[in-house]
Amino acid sequence: MNDSKHVKTHQGGCHCGAVRYRVELDASAGTRCNCTICGKLASIGALVKPAAFELLQGEASATAYEWGHKVGKRYFCKVCGVSVYGAGYLEEMGGAWVSVNLTTIDDIDTAEVKLMYWDGRHDNWQAGPRATPWPVHASPAQARG
């Protein structure tokens, strides 16, 4: 989930400051997904183990959204609406995980984040991430190709 030589402790949170967290991760790389919710949020994700994430404040200010296969939840600030982090469990992803929206970290420039792309729109997870975006409006066969 993280390249240990680039792991640093970062703090971040939502726009209004109601939800704040601390996380240990390599913020130089992140992922984008073309699924319907990720496309609308335009977040940049990074996965960590739960022990690397600490919610500092705002548990009562965060609300969860869960959909689809219900393997994870996204947490949004109830006050300003920012998607801050997600959490879930999927054996294929190594068990329990937390997904941090890198755009909510205080001390990084997301223009410098190396992106990899997932094809969640077509449930094409077995293809893994790649360096170029997956097509959004393609049949599953075209997307895998």
Question: Which descriptors would you attach to this protein?
Answer:
five-stranded antiparallel beta sheet, mainly beta, 145 residues, globular, single chain, 8% helix, three-stranded antiparallel beta sheet
In short:
The protein is mostly beta strands and 145 residues long.
Fold blueprint:
Layout (H helix, E strand, L loop, with lengths): L7 E6 L6 E6 L3 E5 L2 H6 L3 E4 L4 E5 L4 E4 L6 E6 L5 E8 L4 E7 L12 E5 L21 H5 L1
Parallel strand pairs: 3-10
Antiparallel strand pairs: 1-2, 2-5, 4-9, 6-7, 7-8, 8-9
Any overview of this molecule?
This protein is mainly beta. The chain has 2 helices and 10 strands. The strands form 3 sheets. It has a 5-stranded antiparallel beta sheet with strand order 4-9-8-7-6, with no helix packed on it. The longest helix has 6 residues, at 36-41. The chain is globular and about 40 Å long. The mean pLDDT is 89.
- The end-to-end distance, rounded to whole angstroms, is 26 Å
Strand content is 35-45%
Uncertain runs are none
User: What general form does the structure show?
Assistant: globular
Structural class: mainly beta
Overall mean confidence score, pLDDT: 89
Q: What percentage of residues falls in helices of 4 or more residues?
A: under 10%
Order of helices and strands: EEEHEEEEEEEH
Largest sheet: 5 strands, antiparallel
Radius of gyration over C-alpha positions, nearest whole angstrom: 15 Å
- Total DSSP helices: 2
Strand order of the largest sheet: 4-9-8-7-6
Tell me the total number of β-strands.
10
